[in-house]
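Hi Q.,

Before the meeting this afternoon, I wanted you to have the 2-(butylsulfanyl)adenosine prediction in hand. No need to reply - just skim if you have a minute. The sequence and ligand are here:
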Amino acid sequence: MNVKEAESRIKYLREQIVYNSKLYYESDAPKISDFEYDMMFRELGELEAQFPELDDPASPTKRVGGKALDKFEKFTHSVQMGSLTDVFSYEELEEFINKTDAILGGAEYSVEPKIDGLSVSLIYENGKFVRGATRGDGFIGEDVTENLRTIKTVPLELNEKLPYLCVRGEVYMPKAVFEQLNKIREDEGQPLFANPRNAAAGSLRQLDSKIAASRRLAIYVFNLQEGDIYSDGRHPTTHIETLERLAELGFTVLPETVKAKGYKAVAEHVRYLGDARPELSFDMDGAVIKVNSLEGRRTVGEGTSTPKWAVAYKYPPEEKKTKLLSIDIQVGRTGVLTPAANLEPVRLAGTTVSRATLHNINFISERDIRIGDTVVVRKAGEIIPEILESVKSERNGTETVFEMPKVCPSCGHPVVRDECGDGAAIRCVYAGCPAQNARGIVHFASKGAMNIDGLGPQVVELLLSNNKIKEIADLYELKIEDIENLDRMGRKSAENLVNAIENSKSRGLEKLLFALGVRQVGEVAAEAIARKMRTIEACMDATVDDFITVEDIGEITATALVEFFAEESSRELIARLKSLGLKTDATAEEREETLAGLTFVLTGTLPTMTRDEASALIKQAGGKVSGSVSKKTSYVVAGEEAGSKLTKANELGVTVLDEDGLMKLLGK
Ligand code: IVH
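Predicted structure with the ligand bound:
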């Protein structure tokens, strides 16, 4: 094939791929098979490699992700990316409409869904997508061009070659994709994303665009930031006209958007959207009401970071009724028996819910929740939903009162009421209880502990039930051959698991102390103890008084530690782990307490690290991390999409840092 022929074939393939991908993703009505699509895609990639002079950043082959980055570059927005004032009731909404109507002498509004995702700006030059960035603090965001390129609904080339355009949209993860992703993560023992928004944020912030590409994100464009959408000198006069024109140019614009005049009509669509929420393919956390006329917007004006011509109506957390089918008892790592509800599956806030926590027996009896009851469930930001109440009026007499078992459902030993707790905790105190053992191993391998990738609850269960392990230390003697033939495993996953276990040997005393699961000893305490004690031998020899000298360790924790290290089984386990090559000394230097006495609050998504990582750095340097902002807070570290904590910090005059500022403070 010569260059001329290649050029025409490449053009044909690109057009076909773009056209068919649009059919597939937007109308869900593909005209060709996946196989035909894949073949065209492969042929295009091969031709582009063969004729590099014909390559183009706007080619659909660029959607699969490229080389991983070290970090995201900062990006300064030429037009501020503001946010919206929230209203939480119909009264407040009516107030907004009446006030705005009074200024404008009556107005038309657009009522649209508030997509729960991440705001980004997309820049096009000569009709081609050249750059895209996150909102950041509204002025400076991060350049996430490569990740945005992988999103199928970000057009790489517009239908008209306009000189310059900057649009704003919301990147989100469709609910169905979110459920699939979490299912896979659950199977692989990885931590679950709490909701589609977090999943979208985590995916868009991947330095490796191949990972971002695999997450199947999508975008809805909702605003023109800058530039001309017409090439003949015309200008749009309304927001809806702008959206329609952006759709013509190839963008996927906000769905379910209508025009409405007066409070009644506006509220009607807000209600309609609220009711439609469960059926929509995307998560929405509110409705946005905006003045439609662009001239009208100029008249009403702007506040410092929010426009006066728009508000976001926030829906209360979604609640649903369903049937409580049965109650299971889960035995935790420390032997506590926790009741969990099995529910008739119900769609709630973007996911299908069939389990809910019931906390403890007091929770159940105080609310008189019975098996067979209709119950109200709610999801408020957490992965596991909770039961709010049972609907007594829907009882028919067949419901049964639940009682906690007298023996442990796992080992059959009698259970006891926990004296130290609030009296509600019921505990199995048998040291050899298989459920406690399994939970203990899962905890040992978990992220904050030894961080063994791929060793989640299912795999632990698999290893235990096939007699491949009996206790924690056996993990370190596992061989690939022991694992590869087990259900749903294989050579590659067995190799990965053995490598992950091997790598965990070097975590050091900080992680090991937490991983051992001593009662009362969380991640922070384990770290503080390791820094002070330095070796596991010192911990084994320490008295209650010795432990109390460690920052924030009180008598209860100190006693639990001494009791743990006095037990023969603990000592045997530690000796075995040591002989298997685990590092049992502290890894970190005895710290220079540069942040001693300072309290930090973290909020929003930081550019290069998770909040947990930032928190660990602060604690390493002797600082404290708190969950809420008060006058005593020394610094608030704010990232992308920071919310009320940032507002509170500003109100109280607390110094706000970004990630760079924090790193400077840490001397990094
Ligand atoms: S308009 C200047 N419309 O909600 C007004 N925002 O605080 C710009 N969002 O970060 C916002 N759906 O990312 C607008 N239909 C919509 C939206 C929307 C979601 C996000 C946006 C912003 C946040 C508002």
